[in-house]
Amino acid sequence: MPISKDDVSYGYRYLLGKLPENNDRTAGQFLLLAWALIVFSFSTGAWAQSASTVQTNAALQSTSISGLAVGTTIVRSGFYAAGDGGAATYTLSASNCTGPDNGAKVQPSSGTGCWMLQPSTITDIRIWGAQNNNSTDIGQYVQKAYDANVGCIFIPAGIWLWSSAVTMSAQTPCFRGAGWNEAVSAGSLSSTNMLGTWIHRSSTSFTPATISGLAGQGGTPSFSYIAFYDDQPAIGTGPWTPNAYPYFFVLNNNGRVDFDNIMFYNTTHCISVFNSARGHITNIYGQPQGTCLSFDHMHDISTLKDIQFWPFWSGASVVAAFDQTVDPIVYARSDSPFIDDIFTLSYHSALAFTQSNEGTTTGAQIGSVSADATLYGIWIKPDATGVQLQIANLRGSGQAFPGTGSQPGSGTYRDSGTSTQVSIGNIDCFYAGGSCISVLGSGSLQFGNGVLWNYNNDNNGSAAINAGASGFISGANPPSIANVTHPAPVIPTTSAGGIYELRGVRQYWTPGVVGSGESGTVTYSSRVGTFWYDGSQVTITFYINGTTSSGLSGSLFINGLPFTDNELPDQHAFCTISSMAGITLSPSFNILSGVVASGLNQILLVQSGSGQATIPAPTTIVTGGSGSFVLGGSCTFASGQ
Fold this sequence. Notes:
Layout: H1 5-15, H2 27-44, E1 52-54, H3 57-62, E2 73-76, E3 88-93, E4 105-106, E5 114-117, E6 122-124, E7 133-137, H4 139-148, E8 152-154, E9 158-161, E10 166-168, E11 175-176, E12 197-201, E13 209-212, E14 223-230, E15 247-254, E16 259-264, E17 269-276, E18 280-286, E19 293-296, E20 303-309, H5 317-323, E21 329-331, E22 334-335, E23 338-345, E24 349-353, E25 361-362, E26 364-372, E27 376-380, E28 388-397, E29 411-415, E30 421-430, E31 437-439, E32 444-453, E33 465-467, E34 472-475, E35 480-482, E36 499-502, E37 505-509, E38 512-515, E39 522-533, E40 537-548, E41 556-559, E42 571-581, E43 593-596, E44 602-606, E45 627-638
Parallel strand pairs: 1-2, 6-8, 7-9, 8-11, 9-12, 10-13, 11-14, 12-14, 13-15, 14-16, 15-17, 16-18, 17-19, 18-20, 19-21, 20-23, 21-24, 22-25, 23-26, 24-27, 26-28, 27-29, 28-30, 29-31, 30-32, 31-33, 32-34, 32-35, 34-36, 35-37
Antiparallel strand pairs: 2-3, 3-5, 4-5, 37-39, 38-41, 39-40, 40-45, 41-44, 42-43, 42-45, 43-44
């Protein structure tokens, strides 16, 4: 008897007891229809779509597939045990597994077929048997998951030991963690307080992940929301150095490969990017103990954004001393990179630019860089030729860390390269041990606005803005220069330096007065000075109100000028006195000129007429006794440029 669609419907309803009472078929016909339905279901695989459940991967392997139709589904509740995170749903295929991995492909122990993982948006790495016990190698399971090519792989919270090398060269990887917490100190590395997904490396003998030869893929980061940490030596009181780990990730000859929301907690070396353009590395945090991010042979654009390198792991002085020798981000050949929102604390530089056999960095567009307790905010190394940078905002603070004062020789911008071309919109410099801005090679710097505050803390006469013999520095607007504890010039007061085109360089300084025959001390109630450079000459102003304890005598000097330079020749200054009280002068002294003496940060006020070039000139001030005095005026002299 032919079976129609209506017969099938009737058969199902008969088996379910849902046929109406007033039907025109006999009981025998219904039994025949029910039997036909059973045959029909097996022949079409209709019953094969209902899933059964096994508890473990071993149980899945031992499940008999004899008589099961292709397309039969089965649920595995766990890998080692139900609920261990290895749950997955599988579908039976017609042929045996090609490359069974017990995760995406599980080979039955008998019969012909393969349990194939049903695709999902993201697949848990535990379906291959990975365990977050900080002792079982996750590397082997990362390799299996990558080779399976089943989409994004989820690495859940826990501490995972990575102890084998993984290679990725077939498709763009996608591994995602459960995030991480930052409040973990060097002495508290444990599963109790290390929340989220943490990858642990303990061996220096291998590169964990090599990614090469990929065309690239946009939209989904290759690695995201994962923290990485290395075993490092114990922190004591003596000199400390990290273990010599290689880069964790090595990218060679790829298209776009992205990293996002990664913590490199105390990783020695993090990501090496070689000829792998168009990638995005964003939201990177940590306290790397070596160069963390390295770029070279980059023939197309790349993006680096939102970087914070800070003492997440340890603020110990011995660790900080080592970190202050580290350049965490280094660019060699890189064409038109986009760089923004970079922050470092306690490093040698925030961004370093060097040279390789392929060239150097050109066309870089840099948004904001903030370097705290860092020797140099931007450092162009001596081996670099032709570096080209456009920087919107650069802020640097060279203070010591930990402790007080400044790091010796620190400055916000240091260019030691050749034929460089750099422009900076806004530059702020604080607590520099040396010069805030240095162009020591044959480079060119143009900057718009500057706040150069408290430089020359090494007290060696470092100018705020310093160009070497072949350097060029141009400033569009007058920089604000103030609070200089140790007086030093705005630019070197010597004709042997580079070329400056600075529009109105002004700073404040603290003047003093002294007599060559001084016998008492001076107490100041107020004193203020300004120092103005217009590109060809210097004008100083001073106002001093003080009291002597037992009088001053001899020649009259205004000291504390913000420069000392042994190459500055003796020269005359034109001086005027706007206010004076409590000072007795010899009758012929009218204070119309001064002498700027080589190697000193002071001006000798001299009488007009004969004897102007005499140092010291015969002048008497505050003859005998004690009392208060006022002295105010200005002097103008050549800059020496």
